[in-house]
Fold this protein.
Amino acid sequence: MRPVSVCQWSPLWLLLCLLCSLCLGSPAPSTAPEKKAGSQGLRFRLAGFPRKPYEGRVEIQRAGEWGTICDDDFTMQAAHILCRELGFTEATGWTHSAKYGPGTGRIWLDNLSCSGSEKSITECASRGWGNSDCTHDEDAGVICKDQRLPGFSDSNVIEVEHHLQVEEVRLRPAVGRGRRPLPVTEGLVEVRLPDGWSQVCDKGWSAHNSHVVCGMLGFPNEKRVNTAFYRLLAQRQQHSFGLHGVSCMGTEAHLSLCSLEFYRANDTTRCPGGGPAVVSCVPGPLYAASSGQKKQQQLKPQGEARVRLKGGAHPGEGRVEVLKAGTWGTVCDRKWDLQAASVVCRELGFGTAREALSGARMGQGMDAIHLSEVRCSGQELSLWKCSHKNITAEDCSHSQDAGVRCNLPYTGVETKIRLSGGRSRYEGRVEVQVGGPGSPRWGLICGDDWGTLEAMVACRQLGLGYANHGLQETWYWDSGNLTEVVMSGVRCTGTELSLDQCAHHGTHVACKRTETRFTAGVICSETASDLLLHSALVQETAYIEDRPLHMLYCAAEENCLSSSARLANWPYGHRRLLRFSSQIHNLGRADFRPKAGRHSWVWHECHGHYHSMDVFTHYDILTPNGTKVAEGHKASFCLEDTECQEDVSKRYECANFGEQGITVGCWDLYRHDIDCQWIDITDVKPGNYILQVVINPNFEVAESDFTNNAMKCNCKYDGHRIWVHNCHIGDAFSEEANRKFERYPGQTSNQIV
């Protein structure tokens, strides 16, 4: 007999039931804790190894993407809140510098500041979601008390035994270990698990899987391998399988994003009928392992790249710039993600992306923003093949410029160099390892001609970012017992990956000053300035002035006139000057400061200020074939903040012996009507010319990018008037546009009198 509710007996009983429910109130809530409103849409987990179930690297899933937290300003208060988000009662400690290994993907939070009373991590102050200047080497971790919150039911915490993660992947050469040159491009796929490195079963292994593995290891593509050879070899070797059932689509940035299965500890039969997965990768042009590969790549016809990276401290990182209609521009970070970043990285000859950077983390560009809302599937061969929106000036600003950090092949170059004697790991005397595998030895570098470009390469090889200074004397740093100079005559362009790629004397060491006090040293930094001239202002303000000699005594004292001025009949006569304004912006991530300290600044009585740099800018008039026919002064400027962006405060002012420099986000303006802001063209004959302005021409101060320090304009001079047009930063045009520029510096209608 089916039971019947009392409320179904009659209409009268229905009314009584309704009244009772209103009087007694609604049913009591469940005892399980309610999901915090502030954490809606977020998931938390612990990752990394070696670790216990209640400790690890903190990872947050937001908008479907897992990321980490930077350790900058991290405190126990933040650790307490995160442990409660993870279902533990409190934190007993926290870790910094990626103790549990570096994560992947976004760094969601940076400069996290909590009081400890917040109910959710979203209530803590920070730089904002996804806005960080950290690397994954700074990932924060927590150690929670091994006591769960009552009634907390959540799958956020990763139990080591059941929820393993693939953190690291490597290729182990099956033959010739120790003799193959780096990077390793072919071998057995191994993944790092808590109990060590294990192989992957190749049953069901596909080219898509290989593509993902190669991307993680810093290679853009994969190629077929001789599976029969490796199967035969596998029969003679013992293997430890830890992973099977790997199935990737080929668009993943990391193997952990693929479908995969881990063998359990009690699995006695592993990979029956299969063998270890083997992958062969194709290195990009920068990392071609042998001369044969380099020659093959050189034979392939390659057009000009349509994507580039600018402003990065390390290879494979930087602000993304794209070429459109012959002009380079940036990409807006709206909807910028790992898929799009990985397309850029592979297009440039690197692997997949480690990070998709937003918020102009690699410095701000200037002029055009070409793309916005870029969406890629991951299969595209070029960023231009992805769907995107064309940008307008109102849509985006350069504070939203997108950037990337790519996976790079391991080359081991950082093991061939070290610093000694410095106060921190970022400075010291440079020591390099020379000699073959059988007889390696460490030695010093001769300081003769050692400068900023050489220091840039040394800091890059060390993995320490940019060079603040390249030092030719290092007597104040203790060299220990090392006294032998093993490298001399080092001359770099600044783009090399290691010092041994620079020109040098080889095994024959020739050093003018042989004492150890005159050996090379560096001071490195993770950030650097980046100066850029506002080219449009030069074109808008250029004009000719015939200035009387009696008004040029100060200018002559500062060597601002051409050499023929010395033979003039002073104070009678005049000099013909091409005048223009220059506005120099600092778009980098560190202030531009003069190399010399205040004690060595030079006072100039005529102009009433100190000069902090011997050479800051060159002004030149060149013929179309590059011959110099006139030049501006080479005396230094007084560096100060004339104007700044809205949210930036001025720091530097020349008056009253003030500090000199240019703050990030500020610019120094030299008006056309001040002394020496000109080129003396008195002796220049009528014709077609190129006006060239070069900032920091002797590389006295380190910058993140020297390729944008030169500006060029076409100009036509008829002996009385001058036309200046087509002004642009040296690397702002495509190669073809630059060739046209140099081929025809002709006349246009923007006449200047």
User: Anything to note?
Assistant: The CA atoms of residues 443 and 486 lie 5 Å apart. The chain has five domains: 43-144, 168-173+183-282, 307-407, 413-525, 531-743. The domain at 43-144 is CATH 3.10.250.10 (Mac-2 Binding Protein).
